[in-house]
Amino acid sequence: MQNTDELERWNQRYSSEEYFFGLEPNEFLCSQSYRFSPKQKVLALADGEGRNGVWLASLGLDVLSVDISPIALEKAQHLAASRGVTLTTEVADLSTWRWGIEQFDAIIAIFIQFASPDLRRLIFEGIKASLKTGGLLILVGYTPKQLEYKTGGPPYIENMYSEHLLRESFSEMEFLHLEEYEAILSEGVGHSGMSALISLVARK
C-alpha cells in the first residue's frame, strides 16, 4: 500500500521545474485518439505532471487527472493553462481512493507500475467497477524484460505486466488490442531509451 514515504518519494521526484516524464503524451496513447469522442468523461490514473491528461483534455474530453503527489498536479494545472485547456485534478492514494461505479467512458493507465501485486489487484478491480458499460481501458506498461534495459520503471519483476497477466486480470472485458513489443522511449528523463513494453485496449 502507498504511505507517507511513497508520497514523499513522488513529491521529491516532481519537485524540479523540469517535467520528469516530459511534456508530451505517451506515443501509444496518441495512436488511440480515434477511439475518443468529445465530452466523454475520462480518468487519467497516476497522471503525474499531466502530460497525458492535458493531451486528452485537448481532444475536448472531460478529464479527471489523479495522482498521489500534489506537487505533480500543480504542475499539471500549469501545463493545462499553458495549453489553453481545462483539467480537473484530484490528489488520490489509489490504495484508498473511492472509485465509484460506472463513472467513466475511458480510463487511461500509462506506466502505473509503482503498484505491487496487492495494490495492482485493487486498482484493476477499481478500473473495472468505475468504467461505464462499453467504456475503454487504455493501458501501457513494462514487461519483465524491462529489467534488462533499466530505462524506466521500478526494479521489481513482480510489478511488471505480461499478456497472460492482463488477459487474466481483465478476462470479462473485450480485448481490442494487446501486444508486447520493444521500442525506444523519449519521455523526459523518466523513460528514456530502448524499452520492453506492453499495450492494451479493452472494452467493458
Automatic annotation (TrEMBL):
Query: Could you tell me which InterPro entries the record lists for this protein?
Result: Methyltransf_25 (IPR041698), SAM-dependent_MTases_sf (IPR029063)
- Report keywords, A-Z: Methyltransferase, Transferase
Occurrences of domain Methyltransferase (ranges): 42-135
What GO biological process terms does the UniProt entry carry, in alphabetical order?
methylation
* Molecular function via GO: methyltransferase activity
UniProt cross-references to Pfam families, sorted A to Z: Methyltransf_25
Write the protein's name. Answer: Class I SAM-dependent methyltransferase
